[in-house]
Input
Amino acid sequence: MVTINRRQLAKSLAAGIAVTGILELPVKQIKAESSSNAEPLRWKQVHPGIWRGTVGTPESNTPVGTRLVPPALENLASLPSITVAPLNSLSGMATTRGCLLRLPLEPDEMIYGFGLQFLSFEQRGKKKAIRVNADPTGDTGDSHAPVPFYVTSKGYGILVDTFRHADFYCGDARSKPTHAVASAGGVVNAPQDKKNLAMSDPGQVSIEVPRAAGVDVYLFAGPTILNAVQRYNLFSGGGPVPPEWGLGFWYRMEAHAAQERVLSLAEEFRERKMPCDVIGLEPGWQTHSYSCTFVWDPARFHDPKEFLSRAAALGYKVNLWEHAFTHPASPLFGKLLPHSGNYGVWGGLVPDFAGLPAREIFGGYHGRELIDAGISGFKLDECDNSDYTGGWSFPDVSRFPSGLDGEQMHGVFGLRYQHALWQQFLERQQPTYNLVRSSGALATPYPFVLYSDLYDHRQFIRALVNSSFSGLLWCPEVRDARSEEDFIRRLQSVVFSPLAMINAWYVKNPPWKQLNSKLNNEGYLAKDWQVLEARCREIIGWRMQLVPYLHSAFERYAADGTPPFRALVLDYADDKSIRSVDDEYMVGDRMFVAPLFAGEESREITLPPGTWHDFWTGSVIHGNTKISVSATTKNIPAFVKAGSVFPLATIGLSSASPASGDLTVRVYGDGSLPWRRNSPSGAQMELSWDWTRSEGRIRQRGSVTKAYRVVKWEHMG
Amino acid sequence: MVTINRRQLAKSLAAGIAVTGILELPVKQIKAESSSNAEPLRWKQVHPGIWRGTVGTPESNTPVGTRLVPPALENLASLPSITVAPLNSLSGMATTRGCLLRLPLEPDEMIYGFGLQFLSFEQRGKKKAIRVNADPTGDTGDSHAPVPFYVTSKGYGILVDTFRHADFYCGDARSKPTHAVASAGGVVNAPQDKKNLAMSDPGQVSIEVPRAAGVDVYLFAGPTILNAVQRYNLFSGGGPVPPEWGLGFWYRMEAHAAQERVLSLAEEFRERKMPCDVIGLEPGWQTHSYSCTFVWDPARFHDPKEFLSRAAALGYKVNLWEHAFTHPASPLFGKLLPHSGNYGVWGGLVPDFAGLPAREIFGGYHGRELIDAGISGFKLDECDNSDYTGGWSFPDVSRFPSGLDGEQMHGVFGLRYQHALWQQFLERQQPTYNLVRSSGALATPYPFVLYSDLYDHRQFIRALVNSSFSGLLWCPEVRDARSEEDFIRRLQSVVFSPLAMINAWYVKNPPWKQLNSKLNNEGYLAKDWQVLEARCREIIGWRMQLVPYLHSAFERYAADGTPPFRALVLDYADDKSIRSVDDEYMVGDRMFVAPLFAGEESREITLPPGTWHDFWTGSVIHGNTKISVSATTKNIPAFVKAGSVFPLATIGLSSASPASGDLTVRVYGDGSLPWRRNSPSGAQMELSWDWTRSEGRIRQRGSVTKAYRVVKWEHMG
Output
């Protein structure tokens, strides 16, 4: 083994040289407190590029300790071969309070991650509490889906393996000064007058895991920040590949809509050529939903079987809203009773999803009664610890038969709830794509997309960007809007996201017919609503065109852990101007978008290095600069890498439409970057452009998801 | 001992009969969890009407365990004699997580308290975390001054003796259902469709104290809710009696104002007849203030001695802003170094105020260098755990020589910081009145008034009302305003509060000259600013008139623990319409005010039972009803009890003005309620009205604070 530094390592890797050695991180040794029992972590390599460090005696109930999906070992092996020694100066100690870890930070080292975060992007200098908490109002770390995982701009990631409310002090907590000085050296009469110490000198991350006598830390090596994220995702099991219908368009019906009303609107979508793959039913489908019975309400759905078969005949998948708290009138109640927590919510049981019995009872019922009847997936609400909302969740002091307390259960409830249902689809070898309100560590492989009741558009985009650091998918769903412009801007964003959905639970008519919800529900449609409908039809059409491209991005997510939607900094880590960009994001490998926000006349767009084309017009834009675009443009600003061969499906009424296999292939610039599909089965397809012959080529090996044919090659710019 | 119920008890007490017995609380026994090691609390009576219940082995560092002010035992003895057995069904247990307590709740029993709370008033059905946290954005319990103490409408109070982040589940956490039912019994498809279980059935308060192997709980008996609060306040040491100047008017200077500018404005106030007792200096008086040196900046204050003597000659007290984090250039640094925490803030030390050495070093310096030089008090900033603001405080994982960790230290830092300075005034037998940003349990006797950076006017009033349940004083200070109306409304409120202050730290000229801060600092005064100045002069004049009345209210606070400013429900607990009133409050025993908020055309006022007079006009209003008042009135709505003999001082330029002893005495209605001063020294004064002779009387025994004479008797209504 040789000792190398990171610069040498990056150079060798870039040159394709396999490297084995000890990575020498130029960090200063952090002095242990005199009074402490700090010890270096005991490190062990567990997978290529992944080490586990242990301090004290870890708990048994942890994300890794109780994982239900194995790491994607083969795919991990395909990442850059790297043998990196863990950071020497990491230390930890068990304390009377729990367990305390200290990790070094270099000057200018930036921290990203911590799961679904709405209120900030760059985390250095901040404290983040990893605590599931619905509707966080402050930038405290609290979120629907916080994850005790961060990556740094120096190209490594740290997972703290705990379900507990860990506090991460990201360089903000500093040791006390030790020497008097003669003079204050200049007047500083406000905090902001101080030099930003948090960034410019070496610092440390202090992490406290409460109540634990020890903890495991997993270090994911790079060398790049993207590599670290990939390793985390593959360690988690690799990304999910949704069925094509999951990437189509979703529409959630008004909460109390009955069978006939739902079907009538579903028919209207077909008649008026509004593409839609999935219709979602909200609480009203059940006899009782706060808490849930999971039983069709016969007054609204007198014949669920007929309802589902008519929906299927129209080409729709049906998704059902629910939450887990189980009403005493539910057929599940009796069996679930011994496998639930000691507190109730809304008069219902809290299933002990950390244990197999509750997952099997709960999931089994869903499988037999709902999935087998034709339900394609679920929307799992209220699992996000709204315990400040007035008893909307179970307290941290709860106890569960599996041995978890309420604090731990909140950390895993969302993910194990997902597992209880996903397991049923897996057993049936039935692809699925779902929604969920809470998630956590190692969630990457789960075919569930997060949503919430929060609604600020800019925060939605930041959440999408942040999610990419921690293996999460986020749906910036469209509900109401304060103006037609706001509605359009939000719809433009959501079609460039993991799940494209309008959630119309609060209005009887589609929002494009009347944005004012009161008027909408009273049946007063907007004058000329057809104009807005046409605009929506066009935007939803973009989504239908993007399905093949998005599908291939998800295939890569499964294969090598690259998030399909991700922060620019993951692709352009070396570029300082990219470092703080939290309102643009990559879509697949060829495209980035920069959403517009209602009420803003223009926006600044940071262009990453390289040559880009305007996605819509093909015009060439040279990168590594900032440009200002006027918000009068009718499209969302989207850019494609020069050279890209970019497939667009023909718009059908659903992704099952035969037309959706007919591709228009855009060739941006010289077409030197072919487009590939790589199914998990090993099938491949490649679309490339031969500039010398001026012709496109399609090569296929085995059968990818569907039969594609190219109906048109289109030159852009 | 006999067993009696509360109704009998109240009746006996009302009839003046001394009662000894066991109070039988009609609460259902709470079933212990089958898996738990719940035990009833071990109870012991510690003072008349006060019991201590113990579970497990409590920590030694707790509010009561480390208290520095003894209970006001003599005054406690003067409260209704009552021997009440503790609540039998209280139980507790030490768990792996810490310590869990369960207390019963009756149907309709309402909970109030938890210290300085901005966002809610009625706490039943909510979860409150007792965690010092600056600028709380959600209704989570977090606050500058949370207190682990609540009272209920059933007339008792509960103090949980801990500095830790205790979670109080106030009836929101409910046991799981145990029996299946045949039918859901009606469709419930939204949480709000559910019956409000939280209020209508018996419930429980669950309290978790993290990390503690045991805890003491103190029960403060009533029989009324006000009695419970009084017992808590007297147990804490009784209320402070501020010097008269503390109850006058305060004005804080622009942050960077130098000696001459401060004095010039102070002179201008005198010339323009703006009453003012205290001028406050903000950060700029020090050579370095983030962190602090506690040394006068010679560039701005070239001669502090001359500055202070000129201010004194003009009749002003001077108050200094500071925070505790001590810069390496401070003369305090060397001595403080071994008595500080292991983390620093803004490059300064965190004094270990829980230990005597740090308090003596820190306080001693302040005494010698600042108090002896003439400083009347301090404004203690930044002690409120802004650790989500980016390193603006020390982390919970900190360690202090006194043995506290950071979590505990946050719970006591504000109060012990107060003590370090108050001790210096006590040693000098010098009355003082101060400002502070954080406080906690047992804070009643401290002559410190809370303030914050929050600024919503309605929240400010709610905070004032809530503070009265937990021995806290709150200053709804006036800073900027979005309109002239907003400015006036805020000023009208603050003169009816514990500390009447304009905090003009951000503007060079008084805000009444120019409300727009940019224009103000550029020297552009508003046209006709003299009109607003005159309006302010009048409102500040009200405050000067109220000083004797307010002073007597504080004397009662010291004598029997009745808060001088308090929620109406403390005086009118039996009146259902009063229960949720959080925007009106009692001022002393004779008056209540109902502030107006800018932008609202009118407001509804709930009038407590009895006959009232409009304070301003004397017109009679019969209570026990709601009235609507138009916001066009030039005054803040204020009401006085029929019969009140109500003193108003003559307005002087400060409370030291000889005129301030000349009283105009208003007689509302029949004058059957005399006004009394009761100095702690035992001196008494009484103003009464003899209706038969149609003359007022003044009786005096010993010398009260100052020599009063009545210059006018005025009949009102």
